Amino acid sequence: MTAINFQTINANLISTDTGKLVSFALSNNTSQTLKLYWIDRAGEEKLYQEIGPGATITQSTLSSHAWLLKSNDASFGTKFLPEAGAITISSSNTPSFMDYSEKVIHTSEGAWSTTQGFGLIDAARALGVADTVELPSGGENNYLALNTINAASAWAAGYTGKGVKVAVVDAGIAYSRELEGKIVAGHDFYDNDATPTPDEGPYKDHALGVASIIAASHAPNPGQDTMGVAPDASLINVRVGSSIHGSATNAMAAGIRYAVDQGAKVICMPLQAPDHRLDPALVEAVHYAYTHNVVTVIIGGNFSNYGPTGPALISHELGGQSLNVGNYNVRTHSPFDSSNMAGETVAPWVMASSTGWVPSSTGGYTYYEDGGTSFAGPYVAGLAALLWQQNPNATAEFIIGRITQSAAMNGNELPLQQGVTADNANQVITATANTKIDSGGGIDQVIFAGSRADYMIASLHDGLRITNQHDKSVNLLANVERLAFADTVLAIDVGLNNNGGDVYRLYQAAFDRVPDLKGVGFWIGAMDNGASLHTVASNFVRSAEFEKLYGVGPTQQALVTAMYQNVLHRVPDQDGLDFWLSAMSHGLDDASLLTSFSNSTENQQAVATIIGQGFEYTPAA
Predict the structure, then answer these.
(1) DSSP output for 255-307
(2) What is the rounded distance in angstroms from the CA atom of residue 88 to the CA atom of residue 320?
């Protein structure tokens, strides 16, 4: 698990642009306002946000950007390099960190990802039909998102949502020719009348986009176009809020009950909230739907939170009586950074894409690369409609189960690459598209044909996911130490007692600098061929560079003090200084002292922010 190294307010941190894109949530549990500053590339502090007592904010950044958090009265302060996760400041001004990197948990219901839940929905697999049809790529439409869930194969098998009513509980569906004749009922619980027309606010077209993804016409439409997942389904237009002021939970609860009583079999509720409070009336309304065999689809939220927020928490409250939806990025095969993540509590959480064109009330169309969980949810609602057409006498529990059980994390069902044996030998393996590689023990290298920039690397709980950004093929790697690309080599064995990480940390500790590629590559090669870390350290302490930094023949106290300054970047505490002086007086040599400082928890945490995703090196000739 990656951990943030929280450093003192006087630590020398500046931003660089070498990291990965991350988001972190920051919760203030103190009694005073905290201020968050970005430390720019010149070391200047730029105030970004103020976080009041009890408040939580979310910040997107690069993992190589430096941040400063401090209180108004300067009684508390810390600098850090971020990772994706949650930072909590306790009432005692102590920071802690929860890692957001993906973990895969094996449950009785299938593999569960803390970022993707049960994974990406698949219409063909859910319906049990052959996956044989794909919409043409390109154009200004939503075909990419439809192909991602294999929707066209469902239509080819005759499943179009015919005879199924789907309610959209939102701010009112605006008119579009895509939905001509499809809305069969409606009510306005915001203005308390029978005309659920949206007001002229920034989200006027929100419900229209949702409804179109569910049931837009498949009639030929030259130019821009949206095709619905369930084009023959009927719609119920339930307005429960304003496109300016949002929705009240009592109106949402009333809207859900109305939709059930009007014969809806699916309710799509693209409404979110950032908090963890639930209105009992809203919970009871979803339960009412479930007990009447109606599937409620609720968006997971767009707050980059680790776990659902707002109405999506109802699924946890009711033990899985509704479906939650995360927002899947078809370019990276992972959730959008904006999307809430599934978290570690297993519940009906699946993924769908939100990328594509949707109609607007002006008669045109609008493109969304990231349409939020609001535009991912209706793909799941549309699939539920197809399943109700196929299984008209089923239960809501059955439909929810079919959707979750047929979903899969990207690469979850990839075959193990043929010819790869999980053993203790050192192996060199050439990657082939869409395969798993588990090479077991030894020091193993996987070769990729393209350059490093052609691939996206994501950490999983038990390895890495490597995505080719051109053809979107995927490799899942486990027990692999090195990656070779056309233009560079990465060492990803960065943990303690791994040759790559041990050598990098030792280099940084000995010389207080970033290792040069050839130098670190030479010593990695030495350790791969059997040299011990102590042997490498002995060579370092005898080098001219070490003597220049630490002095020639320094006293034991001078050497230990310099280790604290050059490795841990702080003055020694008295207990620590006494401990190491005692150890050296009892025979600890200079090389062992260096390896001890290099492998210390404090140094591991500091260096992890630099090499957590691996580091480049030049292999020894």
Answers:
(1) HHHHHHHTT-SEEEE----SSS---HHHHHHHHHHHHTT-EEEEE--SS--BS
(2) 29
Amino acid (1-letter code) at residue 270: P
Q: Which amino acid is at 237?
A: N
**Per-residue pLDDT, 24:** 86
Nearest to 185 by CA among 193, 176, 194: 194
Q: What is the mean pLDDT of residues 220-237?
A: 94
- Other C-beta atoms closer than 10 Å to the C-beta of 140 total 13
Residues ≥6 apart with Cβ < 8 Å to 601 = none
Per the domain annotation, does 5 fall within a domain?
no
Radius of gyration from C-alpha coordinates of the chain: 28
Structure tokens, 185: 């009922």
pLDDT digits (tens, 9 = 90+) for 451-490: 998 887 876 656 787 878 777 677 888 899 999 999 999 9
* pLDDT top residue among 545 and 83: 545
As a whole number, mean pLDDT of residues 594-603 equals 93
| Best CA proximity match to 226, nearest among 403, 363, 374, 386 | 363
| Helix H or strand E encompassing 317 | helix 314-317
| Phi (first) and psi of residue 477, to 5 degrees | -115, 135
Residue with tokens 């002995």: 538
Q: What is the mean pLDDT of residues 539-554?
A: 94
E strands, 128-182, where? 165-170
Per-residue DSSP letters for 561-598? HHHIIIIISSPPPHHHHHHHHHHHHTT--HHHHHHHHH
Residue 87's domain comprises 21-99
Angle of CA points 502, 503, 507, to nearest 5°: 120
Q: Is residue 435 part of a domain?
A: yes
Residues 367, 273 share a domain: yes
Backbone phi, psi, residue 500, to 5°: -60, -55
Q: Is residue 399 part of a domain?
A: yes
User: How distant, in Å, are the alpha carbons of 25, 170, 231, 322, 563 from that of 181?
Assistant: 44, 19, 12, 28, 76
Instruction: List Cβ neighbours of 607 (8 Å cut-off, separation of 6 or more).
Output: 501, 504, 505, 508
Count the domains in the chain: 4
Asked if 88 and 29 touch (Cβ cutoff 8 Å), the reply is yes
95 and 108 fall within a common domain? no
Regarding pTM above 0.70, the answer is no
Do 40 and 128 reside in the same domain of the chain? no
Residues 136 and 231 in one domain: yes
pLDDT digits (tens, 9 = 90+) for 394-419: 999 999 999 998 898 765 556 677 77
- 82 and 151 share one domain: no
The CATH number given to whatever domain includes residue 43 is: 2.60.40.780
Three-class SS of residue 34? strand
Instruction: Give me the DSSP letters along 430-492.
Output: E--SSEEEE-BSS--EEE-SS-GGGEEEEEETTEEEEEETTT--EEEEES--EEE-SS-EEE-
What's the token pair of residue 492? 């990803």
Report residue 4's pLDDT band, with 50, 70 and 90 as the boundaries: confident
